[in-house]
Amino acid sequence: MGSLMRHTRMIANLGLLLGALTAGLAAMMPWWNGSAEVIPGAVDTPTPAGQALCGVLAGVIVAGWLLSATLPARARQVTAVLLALVGLIMMWAAFTGPGEAPDASLVGDVAPHQPTGWHWAALPGGVLTVAGAVAMVIGAPSWRRRADRFDRQAPETISPDDDPADLWKAMDAGLDPTADDGGITGPSSERTGG
């Protein structure tokens, strides 16, 4: 069972990180080939809304992944559901594509606008994000939080019968309180007659 949960954590982490990387790649690459001369001498390549959306979603995925490392199990599952929604939005951006060609009537054309196909890079990013989020929903209840390693251990309960004076008297008598058997050790055993 521990191996399965370790694998779900690995699948979740890889899925979310690779999803964020491919979303970032889809946001960085041009979705349109061509440019328009907005101001004489200055060339502007239009950015479709889906391309900008992929860049934002890549940041959201990384933020959700980092946040999930500190959250308890139930909140981690809620975060995973939200990340799955982000992956679905990214897939929607891939299917809607770069949209219509930029309007050339308002600006002078320098080159014709052709879609490049880079919008399809958002599709595997969305699929990987959804897969990682599903693995997180399934496995999150059994994962430890990263912050748990810094929690203090519960103090040992001290019974009313434990009197510190008794410990000192036992050490004066030659008893070693750190010994496993609590017995008498060393040369002091000769003094007590043991």
UniProtKB/TrEMBL annotation:
<keyword id="KW-0812">Transmembrane</keyword>
<protein>
    <submittedName>
        <fullName>Tryptophan-associated transmembrane protein</fullName>
    </submittedName>
</protein>
<dbReference type="Pfam" id="PF09534">
    <property type="entry name" value="Trp_oprn_chp"/>
</dbReference>
<feature type="region of interest" description="Disordered">
    <location>
        <begin position="149"/>
        <end position="194"/>
    </location>
</feature>
<feature type="transmembrane region" description="Helical">
    <location>
        <begin position="117"/>
        <end position="140"/>
    </location>
</feature>
<dbReference type="InterPro" id="IPR019051">
    <property type="entry name" value="Trp_biosyn_TM_oprn/chp"/>
</dbReference>
<keyword id="KW-0472">Membrane</keyword>
<keyword id="KW-1133">Transmembrane helix</keyword>
<feature type="transmembrane region" description="Helical">
    <location>
        <begin position="78"/>
        <end position="97"/>
    </location>
</feature>
<feature type="transmembrane region" description="Helical">
    <location>
        <begin position="50"/>
        <end position="71"/>
    </location>
</feature>
